[in-house]
C-alpha cells in the first residue's frame, strides 16, 4: 500500500490558540504513524494563495491519514485551530517508485 502525504497550508490568526493545537496535534499524528517532513520552515510561494505555515507529514497510507484526522485525539487538537487559523488540508497518495 503506498504511503500518503498530509499537506496543510495555514494562516495563523491566533498564535496562542494555534500553539495549543500544535502541541496536541503532533502526538496525535505520531500515534497514527505520521512523521513530519516539513513543519513551518522556509518556503517560496510560486503560485496560488500565500499562507505562511506549510506542514507536510507522511503516513503509511491514505487510510491512516484519514483515520488520524477523524480520531478523537486529533479532533481535540483541531478544536484549538478552529477560529485560530485559516487552513486547507489535503491527503495525497504518493506515487509508486
Automatic annotation (TrEMBL):
Alphabetized Gene3D superfamilies for the sequence: 3.30.70.100
Domain annotation DUF1330: ranges: 4-94
PANTHER family attached to this UniProt entry: BLR0684 PROTEIN (PTHR41521:SF4), PTHR41521
Protein name according to UniProt: DUF1330 domain-containing protein
